[in-house]
Amino acid sequence: MIESQSTDWHYRKGTSEPPSDWREIGFTEDETWLIGQTSIGFGDGDDNTVLDDMQGNYTTVYLRHAFEIGPGEGIPDTLTLRVYVDDGCIVSINDQEVYRIRVSEGDMSYNDTADWIGNAEWTKYMVKNASEILTVGTNILAIHVLNHSKVSSGNNRSYPDQDRKCQHGMSRRLAYPD
């Protein structure tokens, strides 16, 4: 279960490249990863974890959150993903990219930027092959958040609001926007 303001989001400031396996289930965060409560960002006065050193210093932040699907819950065929971000981000589940907004195709580095500045807003995306990505047990939601530039202000916060449609048609809300 993912709640929008979970206290167990791991985040890493984009001051250098993270290990290549940072999106994987088996990855263990080291001392370069911090723990914070979403929303994570700066410059707008409404973030629970403030990145007061980001502006002028780095353009990206990496976020990770583990969530569980119990043995009796059923793995959904589709997943509605909602993300709140101003510039851009790339969202992965269990090392599989499922969504990107305002970011060019291909791998992005720690010092890359979003393609353009966007207004902070909820964006909704349907993950149609969720049953091929999710697993019973631990799953990892990984988000690479990118600012348009080092000097742009940031609503750099991303968290999902998923409505799971289980195979038997039951809908369950896994996360809630603030």
Overview of the molecule:
The protein has 178 residues and is mostly beta strands. The chain has a single domain (9-173), classed as Galactose-binding domain-like (Jelly Rolls, Sandwich). Helix content is 2%, strand content 37%. The chain is built from 1 helix and 12 strands. The strands form 3 sheets. It has a 6-stranded antiparallel sheet, with no helix packed on it. A 4-stranded antiparallel sheet has the order 9-6-11-12, with no helix packed on it. The chain has a two-stranded parallel ribbon with strand order 3-4. Mean pLDDT is 82; it is low at 155-178.
Q: Tally the structural domains.
A: 1
Strand order of the largest sheet: 2-1-5-10-7-8
The CATH topology turns out to be: Jelly Rolls
CATH C-level name: Mainly Beta
- In DSSP terms, counting alpha (H) and pi (I) runs of 4 or more, how many helices? 1
Spatial shape: globular
**Structural class by sheet pairing and helices:** mainly beta
Q: Characterize the main sheet.
A: 6 strands, antiparallel
Give the overall average pLDDT. 82
From the N-terminal CA to the C-terminal CA, the straight-line distance is 16 Å
β-sheet strand percentage: 35-45%
Biased composition (Basic and acidic residues): 9-23
Region (Disordered): 1-23, 152-171
